[in-house]
Write a structure and sequence with these properties.
This protein has a domain of 85 residues. A two-stranded antiparallel ribbon has the order 1-2. With 150 residues, the chain is mainly alpha-helical. The protein starts with 9 loop residues before the first helix and ends with a helix. The chain is elongated, with a radius of gyration of 23 Å. It binds zinc ion (3 copies). One zinc ion binds next to helix 2.
Length: 150
């Protein structure tokens, strides 16, 4: 979280920075939480309460970003029209996800979504629910739902 406030002069900003550095040094010597300055630090520089809150914030942020990418790519499963974000993932159209995993070290997690948010839509990716994604992988590239449609 940044301490820079809109309209703060550079002098005032330097004072804020100095204050924060002093605060951190003091808290470190007293082994108190960097965030609340009240409870003893147990998780690195945070108390467990602040640490838990921070984890929850990070998780919410990651979810928000992944949701945005899923929406960018259509926001629903191209096979069964599932709309619930929690069920959705990005599927490699040509089933070549393993190549990308190998070549770029991508594991399908948050880092992958973070890259996608800033680039134009990739034609080799589509939104699928986990069900269809797995069904497709298990059945040679076609989700078993396709059998029903015939
Ligand atoms: Zn704390
Ligand atoms: Zn589906
Ligand atoms: Zn399907």
């Amino acid at each position: 979280m940044s301490n820079r406030k809109v309209g703060l002069s550079s002098q005032a900003y330097a004072r804020v920075l100095e204050y924060n550095t002093n605060r951190r040094t003091r808290l470190r010597s007293e082994r108190l939480c960097d965030s609340c300055g009240q409870r003893p630090r147990t998780q690195n520089t945070r108390c467990s309460e602040c640490w838990t809150k921070e984890q929850a914030r990070n998780k919410a942020y990651r979810n928000q970003l992944m949701r945005q990418v899923i929406l960018m790519y259509g926001g629903k499963c191209i096979c069964c029209n599932e709309l619930r974000f929690e069920f959705l993932t990005l599927d490699h159209v040509n089933n070549d996800g393993f190549k990308e995993r190998r070549e770029r070290g991508y594991r399908g997690g948050y880092g992958f979504y973070k890259k996608l948010i800033n680039i134009p839509l990739r034609e080799d990716l589509q939104v699928m629910c986990y069900n269809c994604n797995l069904g497709k992988a298990r059945c040679g590239g076609t989700c078993p739902h396709a059998w029903d449609k015939k």
